[in-house]
Automatic annotation (TrEMBL), chain A:
Residues 61-214 form the 3-oxo-5-alpha-steroid 4-dehydrogenase C-terminal domain. It is found in: Membrane. GO terms for biological process: very long-chain fatty acid biosynthetic process. GO terms for molecular function: oxidoreductase activity, acting on the CH-CH group of donors. The chain crosses the membrane at residues 72-90, 102-121, 162-187. It comes from the Eukaryota. It is a multi-pass membrane protein. The lineage of its organism: Eukaryota, Metazoa, Chordata, Craniata, Vertebrata. Its main location: membrane. This is Synaptic glycoprotein SC2-like protein. The keyword Signal applies.
From TrEMBL, chain B:
InterPro entries: Tyr_Pase-like_PTPLA. One of its GO terms (molecular function) is very-long-chain (3R)-3-hydroxyacyl-CoA dehydratase activity. It catalyses: a very-long-chain (3R)-3-hydroxyacyl-CoA = a very-long-chain (2E)-enoyl-CoA + H2O; (3R)-hydroxyhexadecanoyl-CoA = (2E)-hexadecenoyl-CoA + H2O. It comes from the Eukaryota. It holds the Pfam family PTPLA. Residues 11-33 are annotated as: Disordered. The keyword Lyase applies. It is a multi-pass membrane protein. The chain crosses the membrane at residues 42-65, 86-117, 129-152, 164-189, 209-229. It is an enzyme of class 4 (lyase). The lineage of its organism: Eukaryota, Metazoa, Chordata, Craniata, Vertebrata. It comes from Callithrix jacchus (White-tufted-ear marmoset). This is Very-long-chain (3R)-3-hydroxyacyl-CoA dehydratase. GO terms for cellular component: endoplasmic reticulum membrane.
Amino acid sequence: YAGPLFIYLLFYFRVPFIYGHKYDFTSSRHTVVHLACICHSFHYVKRLLETLFVHRFSHGTMPLRNIFKNCTYYWGFAAWMAYYINHPLYTPPTYGAQQVKLALAIFVICQLGNFSIHMALRDLRPAGSKTRKIPYPTKNPFTWLFLLVSCPNYTYEVGSWIGFAIMTQCLPVALFSLVGFTQMTIWAKGKHRSYLKEFRDYPPLRMPIIPFVL
Amino acid sequence: MAAAAATAAAKGNGGGGGRAGTGDASGTRKKKGPGPLATAYLVIYNVVMTAGWLVIAVGLVRAYLAKGSYHSLYYSIEKPLKFFQTGALLEVGIVPSSVVLTSFQVMSRVFLIWAVTHSVKEVQTEDSVLLFVIAWTITEIIRYSFYTFSLLNHLPYLIKWARYTLFIVLYPMGVSGELLTIYAALPFVRQAGLYSISLPNKYNFSFDYYAFLILIMISYIPIFPQLYFHMIHQRRKVLSHTEEHKKFE
């Protein structure tokens, strides 16, 4: 996760050799570009902190080949998105400030939601154990999505990226969201299936990732 | 015995020009074949495809005899070529071979026909086009008749031998034709800005088809040797198995 964080910033600060030399270290004049950098960076800082302090993993480590694939994916897409958003010829969203504000709201809400779910999942499992329990909504309204969905963390994650895509109005971001959504849907369905297998009293209303639909 | 082995060996894809998929054969294991209805469908499909590529072959020969030169032969077989090569999309889930490899091969062929040869009219008179068309034609005739005969449990050794031997020449031939064609198309793509989008635009996206084609050409470097040597490996397996079976008959 440090990779995408760092790579995006290279483009944001217009480090030499990326865009034409006359743009070296210049800064965009669009507010949304600065906002996008903040959002993107916030997202990956949050992920880093969560990995360090929040998540409780059932498996010890990740196989080496996965790390290579993961990094290529994250770093590649981060570079691709960052290139266009921070480009000197970037075009801000068609509906201007309204669009940016709405999208930013979506992004922030989904980030909070995602974090809430991570905390709720962590509290399900005592430190050091590998027990599995059905997650339920807590007092935190963001977790009420558990009523409708097995993996609301993925739901919120997709939501964040959709927000980011609308905010930047950038096709590569939309494509990144789509690919991520596809992968997370596969994971969510798997998780949902194993919940159903393991717990006979699993709430029937829940869908894997999108309420009522998927 | 050899027939059962041949049915089991009815796996794999390509064996000749272009991005040949892998051939695969286990001469000794008996496989559960498809049901009678599925078999009938497959036989019909494979017969039709064999016939189609024969039509292309005949078209090539006739056009050559009529014109005396081999320029512009592409035009005489353009339609059936497009039809039957695109039709191969149907076989992606059906052919007893890895879906990944089959779709990869079919997609690369379809890409070459539509996104390069059809789209860049200036290359249609290039000799390189003829090179891969001939390679593909011979390969596909053999490959589809191989499948047909295998399904009917009457695979002549000649066909099996041809499928696992001719690729040695046809595959490099096809690849050369493909690469030369893409290379020939490059300047025209650059000139016309074909299939390319540039900044600025409201979706903040750009695509350079010229660079994309170059990337495709580069990708042949790691991919071609892998597929080629896989086929060589298969050849050793398949043809030596049949020898053993023959000894015991």
